[in-house]
Amino acid sequence: MKQLDKKYNDEDNLLVNDLRSIVNKARSKAFAAVNYSLVERNWRIGQRIVEQEQNGVARAEYGKHVIEVASAALTEEFGKGFSETNIRTFRKFFLTFSSLGIQQTLSAEFRKQKHQTMSEESSLLPQKGQTAFDQFDLRILPWSHYERLIRVEDKKAREWYAKEAFEQGWSFRTLNRNINTFYITSAFLCLRISSL
């Protein structure tokens, strides 16, 4: 936190600190909302590409065609960010994190919840020792983290890194360094060895 000028009295300092807190919280919420939207958009594009490919006949050629069409159309309408390489990355993101738990649109979720009985609603509450994140698997990380995680071939290691990045609040730099140096705790190694 910045040091306040000595020209402020204690009451002014309190006011300025409160205002800073309000602005910082609003910035954090805005960043989280933008990040979630970006992750959701990329996941849904990947999902749609995979669905389209599965409906195709000659998969390899048709898959290439689907990516080319998607890239051209999205680039024409929305500009940069939708190269064929990026579309392939979105596809891989969906395939790698298909169980990420990207929810339906808010209105669809609301309608679905509106028709649930009270007993069903109470079963939606997290159980003892469980958070809402655990139950709904909404461990949404920044997009840059997912871009790095999809290059981790071992599924269990990838899941461990994702979980740790979320719980420990790792920056992209920390995540990348830990993956590059094979940073894994002894608990994970024990689990890994016992599963062999």
Number of helices: 10
Gross geometry: extended
Compute the number of strand runs.
Answer: 0
Residue ranges: pLDDT <50 for 5 or more in a row?
105-138
H/E order of the elements?
HHHHHHHHHH
The share of residues in helices is over 70%
Radius of gyration: 22 Å
Helix/strand-derived category reads mainly alpha
Span from first to last CA? 49 Å
Q: Sketch the major β-sheet.
A: none
Determine the strand fraction and express it as a percent band. Answer: under 5%
| Integer average pLDDT | 77
Descriptive overview:
This protein has helices at residues 10-55, 59-78, 84-96, 106-114, 118-123, 132-136, 143-149, 155-168, 172-180, 186-194. It is extended, with a radius of gyration of 22 Å. It is an all-alpha fold and 196 residues long. The chain is built from ten helices and no strands. Helix 1 (10-55) runs antiparallel to helix 2 (59-78), helix 1 (10-55) crosses helix 3 and helix 2 (59-78) crosses helix 3. 70% of the residues lie in helices and 0% in strands. The longest helix is centred in the first third of the chain and has 46 residues, at 10-55. Mean pLDDT is 77; it is low at 105-138.
What's a concise summary of this model?
This protein is mainly alpha-helical and 196 residues long.
Task: Provide tags for this entry.
single chain; mainly alpha; 10 helices; extended
Please give the structural blueprint:
Layout: H1 10-55, H2 59-78, H3 84-96, H4 106-114, H5 118-123, H6 132-136, H7 143-149, H8 155-168, H9 172-180, H10 186-194
